[in-house]
Amino acid sequence: MPITDKQRQLAFSALDSFQIELPSWGFANTGTRFGKFIQAAAATTTAEKIADAGAVHRFTGCCPSVAVHVLWDFPGGVADVPEVMKVAAENGVRIGAINPNVFQDQCYKNGSLGNPDPAVREMALKHILDSIEIQKATGSRDLSLWFADGISYPGTGSIRARKQWFIEGLKTVHAALSGDQRMLVEYKPFEPAFYATDIADWGMSYIYSKHAGPRAKVLVDTGHHYQAQNIEQIVAWLLSEDMLGGFHFNDRRYADDDLTLGCIDPYQAFRIFHEICYFTWETGKAPDLAYMVDQSHNLKNKIEETIQTANNAQELFLKAALVDHEKLAAHQMKGELVDAEECLREAFFTDVRPLIREWRRSKGLPEDPLAAFRASGYLEKAAAERGARNQGAGSSYA
Ligand code: RM4
Ligand code: MN
Ligand code: MN
């Protein structure tokens, strides 16, 4: 489809508005539960992770913030904030969502906020409240909550008691927020719990958020659904209820695979973005959402894969922004099914890459971020500096 001036304008403002946050953990040596394949250039320290995220932002121009995990990136708690902020500023990025970690320590075997032991619930709560202090000190808007809580065998816990403990805990968390801070409640159907996860789906996230208070919103991780679930319908519902806070983007084929966004099913991400763009068109205002990546880069080079992710996200968002909404709405109202569906297909199959290249040129960004990154020598330098240390990293599962 030939691009009109109006579309070019629309495309540029869509690209100007679209930013996606990178996870610090996406640059570290990660693996599957069977083992890790160590990369010489992978980041180990928080400073290295932030430097890598900064490199991605320099080449793509659409990833200005980095989500952090408190235990992994702030081992010293709030005392680490000045140093982390300094590194972020040096690398041209800011600190994004703060992710407390209440799933790794030994005490959390039977859960955190849903643990039957009040002392463990208290510990989890304290860690989350400490994380809010980090959130305040870094000026981050979102506290991103994911819980591994649940039970793995029928009868081994009270589902209703655990729900109640969660409600109490989340209310206390909410009460500690101030200013424009929000808390995002992520759901996941299974893993690591394999019988009943305490926040298993969007309905549970919604109910917990409602109990917690108005600053609590639902976080949709695209990998946290059963195969046949209609994610864009969940998105549309949450949007219409003003209960959607943001996303963890990744692609999947089987379960929570954490693959590159768009690599398996680009039409899925497009359909999600379409619901958002359609909502924006209808209401005249873009919803206030945190777009974040949550991927585990185990095989491909981590920085290259992150650049691919950012490129894919931009392309799919732009395609959704180019849907002719007026036309679509008219066809929907008249029940013109084929024409309505064709509106979506027309936009999805438009090659938006030339437009994105034009936009990049206009911003002084490289037209091809991946090629520019490869030509920069960043990877070779990182491998030389970090290689010896990474070689010594443990790679076994057990
Ligand atoms: C979960 C979920 C969370 C992430 C943890 C480590 O599957 O996606 O967002 O923080 O993994
Ligand atoms: Mn996630
Ligand atoms: Mn996940």
Can you walk me through this structure?
Helix 8 links the parallel strand 10 (about 215-220) and strand 11 (about 245-250). The protein has helices spanning about 5-15, 45-60, 70-75, 80-90, 120-140, 160-175, 200-210, 230-240, 265-285, 300-320, 325-335, 335-350, 355-360, 370-375, 380-390, and strands spanning about 20-25, 30, 35, 65-70, 95-100, 140-145, 150, 180-185, 195, 215-220, 245-250, 290-295. The longest helix has 21 residues, at about 120-140. Helix 5 packs parallel to helix 6 and helix 10 (about 300-320) packs antiparallel against helix 14 (about 370-375). The chain is globular. The model has no long low-confidence stretch (mean pLDDT about 95). The strands form four sheets. It has a five-stranded parallel β-sheet. It is built from 15 helices and twelve strands. With about 400 residues, the protein is α/β, with parallel strands linked by helices. The structure holds beta-L-rhamnopyranose and manganese (II) ion (2 copies). One manganese (II) ion binds near residues 221 and 294.
**Radius of gyration based on Cα positions:** 21 Å
Structural class: alpha/beta
Low-confidence stretches: none
Strand content: 5-15%
What shape does the CA trace take? globular
Figure out the total of helices.
Answer: 15
Number of strands: 12
- Average pLDDT across residues? 97
Bound molecules: beta-L-rhamnopyranose, manganese (II) ion
Summarize the helix and strand pattern as letters.
HEEEHEHHEHEEHEEHEHEHEHHHHHH
Helix content class? 40-55%
Sheet with the most strands: spatial strand order: 6-8-10-11-12
Query: What is the makeup of the main sheet?
Result: 5 strands, parallel
Alpha-carbon distance between the two ends? 54 Å
